[in-house]
Amino acid sequence: MNKNGSGSRLPRLVNLGCGSVWHPAWDNLDVRPMGSEIQAWDVENGLPFDDGSVDGCYASHLLEHLTREGARTLVRECFRVLRSGGVIRLAVPDLETIAREYLRALGQAQEGDQAAMKQYEWITLELLDQLVRVESGGEMERYLRSRASENVDYVTSRIGSEAAPYFTQESERQGPSSQSHRNSSDNPNSHQFQHAFTALQERLVTGVCSLLIGRRGRSAVQEGLFRASGECHRWMYDQFSLKQLLEQCGFSDIRRCTAFESRMDTFDSYNLDVVNGDVRKPDSLFMEAVRP
Ligand SMILES: C[S@@+](CC[C@H](N)C(=O)[O-])C[C@H]1O[C@@H](n2cnc3c(N)ncnc32)[C@H](O)[C@@H]1O
Q1: Is residue 82 in contact with ligand 1, taking CB distance under 6 Å?
Q2: C-alpha 235 chain-centroid distance
Q3: What are phi and psi of 155, to 5 degrees?
Q4: pTM for this one?
Q5: Cα of 64 from ligand 1 centre, angstroms
Q6: Which residue of 3, 18, 63, 79 lies most exposed, with the fewest beta carbons within 10 A?
Q7: pLDDT-based confidence at 197, cuts 50/70/90?
Q8: Domain limits of the chain?
């Protein structure tokens, strides 16, 4: 019996670290589920599927949030749960493009090019902010809220429609947390409760730490809890290292592809990487591989 309750064989597709981008035909998992349709699951604990029971695994902008070892464990788990011929599709921020773009903007900025100076500012944030931030949103969110309107074309070319809410007066007033996410739940009460509960737990833990080890100890624990929350980048990949990772985990026929291409049947019908003809995350490196 498949997810849709029918006895006929529909593909079993798994969306890992789905965030707000999920589809009802898929098994959607996230450590911080944004709705009741999403299963709360930490992929660092393996995957809750039998060996060879899955046709497609998709993880968009998840791998970089795991440690190198955690990412390797996850890709190995995808290998375990995929059937022979099953496809893994990964999307990550492309470290190579970011690094090349950083060097280009730096060179031109140093020659006094005004547009390049603005581009340099943004690409430096893209490279560093999610690696080093110690609070939600970090420098990137501050820039998007206050400065992005000076750099609309470049920021949009880098992060696509995710930048749009920051360019409207409405969103400046309400803040991006109130934007409606595509595919997000209509009734997020349970996840709000879960977040409130987690926040309460964290307040209790940091309160106890403060008593035991003082203010510096408390801020160290707060920082640690934030760093472990799944928001930060813990590693980054380029086409070479991502391919190596897939090879080392046993995958074959590894190919870089575009957002529009996939070896998963009907992938385009789920609007995961392309929405209304636009690439949802243009900064991505897309790669697919097959389980032999
Ligand atoms: C940058 S968002 C990407 C969301 C979505 N896949 C997309 O493409 O827009 C990263 C997501 O990974 C989730 N995540 C981070 N660590 C995780 C883990 N260990 N297990 C499951 N999900 C995780 C986060 O909660 C977040 O929703």
Answers
A1: no
A2: 12
A3: -65, -40
A4: 0.86
A5: 9
A6: 3
A7: low
A8: 13-93+233-290, 95-178
